[in-house]
Amino acid sequence: MSFDTALLSLDNPVFHVYALAASLMILKLMFQPWMTVYRMLRIKGGFRSPEDARSSPMNRRPDPSQLDANEYVERSRRLNLNDLESIPAFLVAGLLLVLVEPPLWLAQLLIWTYVIARAAHFAAYVSAQIHDIRAFCWTWSSLAVIGMALYVLVSLF
Hints:
This protein has helices at residues 13-43, 71-99, 104-126, 131-155.
């Protein structure tokens, strides 16, 4: 069985869509912890490890309360955990989707549904929307990844 490397070329419009979306999602995954760091520095708290409340050049006035949970920081941490639960599955399912050569319209529909739903989920979470709204956004991203995986499975038979 030979492998067609043209599938993983930017000349392949399905791979091009995937590469663009995957890059955006990887950036989202990598920048979310920076948002948490920003929030921790802004409030000088929300630290998790006991050694973080010791005197240091960045923490000149340590206080035991810096180890207390802080909703402003924890919200960002929860977003990061949610990304870690979702984005890797998208990256794998999307790449597998590219390899089975779906119609471009279907790849675009599934991939951009995922990206838009994740962006909406981020906006809903950051702005402290009710669970129903966050769940609605999450559901669409989950269904998009499930759709990718199912298409791959069906294509293999």
